[in-house]
Fold:
Amino acid sequence: MYIRHSLFCVSILGVLGLAAATHAADSAGPMASQRLGTEHAAAQDACLAAVAKSANVEVAKLDIIAVQSVDGITVSIRVPNTKRPWTCHSDDEGNVNSASAGES
Structure:
């Protein structure tokens, strides 16, 4: 009886945790699904927006493939119909310094 009760509690807690995680992801903003992890989220979101605007592509079609934090944040973004990724430089607060195109 105790084992069943424990499993039921674990199952309920698991469902509640999943619901909370889903709500957190939904409320994290429209670009959260495109981020590469949660570190440097403001820089990643700003770079996605900057590259989308410069490349005239919807944010939903972009993929972040790398994030590096040396002398600021460098985000590499895959853009459809390009051979090389775009590179975006930002600070951790999301102030973009540059976004440059990869080779077509």
